[in-house]
Amino acid sequence: MKQHYLLVISLIILAVSVYTFYVTRKSVDILKNKSTKTEDNRPTITILILLILVAILVIPWLYTSTFLGENYKGEDGTGQIGDTIGGITSPFLNGLSIVLVYLALKAQIDANKQVQQQFEKQEIESRFFELVKLHRENVGEIGIGNDFGKKIFVMLIREFRLIHKLVIDVAFEQGIVLSKNQEFQISYNVLFFGIGENSSRQLKQSLSKFDNENIFFEKLEIVLNNEIIKEKEKQKEKRVFKYIPFRGHQSRLGHYYRHLYQTVTFIDKQKISIEQKYDFVKILRAQLTTHEQALLFINSQTSMGKKWYLSKNENLLKTYKMVKNIPLDFFDKNTEIDLTKYFDNGYFEYQTY
């Protein structure tokens, strides 16, 4: 009979231990998730405390009274009862202590991970904003003549459009059929390298894939030189440009695009969510004027800008919408290029209105 009651009491103690473990684990989860709903857990904790108090008061009384029909006092009084209770509860309490220590250590490890992640995030932010600062400084240092900064890109687009027109004319005259994309590639190469003692050699090499016999290049070089002569002969107030065009902008654009690419790829390689990456690059994109974004797109279509395409299906300009602010009809679809063929519907800002 005694064994039967002891078994019942042991089960009660086991149930209280399991319940204690459950409540403790739930409390740890709440702390881990930084829940603000701590008041929801108060009734459960109150019940647990009451159960423990009841167990402390009732179990000794059950052993020492005749309520259960038998008295468990031995010859030495209640000493055996204490030994019995200690023997029954010790395994459960020791096991519970181990579990609580494990949960405390796990919570500490998770907290350390959160601290480390926060520290890494701060490092990313610090490095990124340093790169953005350098980008702005680079733009401010880009100059042609007495002009510096973002207005330079307006001039570059204007020069590009003139080159593009001359490329189309020379190709038509030579009977060479070029796609609109190829026309843009050739025009950008001319803008980038220009013509001159050293520049012409680089330009010739860059156009070799379009012109194996160099006939197109030689004719284009003649036309560009004639345009330079015409520009020089004009009175200063009647000139299209404040500078002599077609001399190349390699020294200006080379460093600009290398740094811009480095800044985007720095964020792209971080182990953070795509949403966080996009938010970072969006800050960088906000620094770019319409003409900067337009020239960036042109650059990405050339061999010099091929790195913007990480793979066949991964394009940094698409992923981070680097040129989404180019307005509708900035480029003439008939005579220049149709941007909607290069990006999905809804990519551009004007498509979301």
How would you characterize the largest beta sheet?
2 strands, antiparallel
Q: What gross morphology would you assign? A: rod-shaped
Spans of at least 5 consecutive residues with low confidence: 34-39
Alpha-carbon distance between the termini? 83 Å
- Fraction of residues in helix: 55-70%
Placed side by side, the strands forming the largest sheet appear as 1-2
Q: Give, in order, the helices and strands.
A: HHHEEHHHHHHHH
Number of strands: 2
Amount of beta strand:
under 5%
Mean pLDDT over the full residue set:
82
- Quickly give the structural class: mainly alpha
Rounded to the nearest angstrom, the radius of gyration is 38 Å
- Helices, by number, come to 11
Q: How many independent structural domains?
A: 2
Could you explain how this protein is built, in words?
The chain has 353 residues and is mainly alpha-helical. It is built from 11 helices and 2 strands; from the N terminus they run H-H-H-E-E-H-H-H-H-H-H-H-H. Strands 1-2 form a two-stranded antiparallel sheet. Helix 4 packs across helix 10 and helix 8 packs antiparallel against helix 9 (274-285). It is rod-shaped, with a radius of gyration of 38 Å.
Features:
mainly alpha; two-stranded antiparallel sheet; 11 helices; rod-shaped
Task: Give the structure's gist in a few sentences.
With 353 residues, the protein is mostly helical. The protein is built from 11 helices and 2 strands.
Write the layout of secondary structure elements.
Blueprint: H1 2-32, H2 42-64, H3 79-141, E1 143-144, E2 147-148, H4 151-174, H5 180-193, H6 199-206, H7 215-233, H8 250-268, H9 274-285, H10 290-300, H11 316-319
Antiparallel strand pairs: 1-2
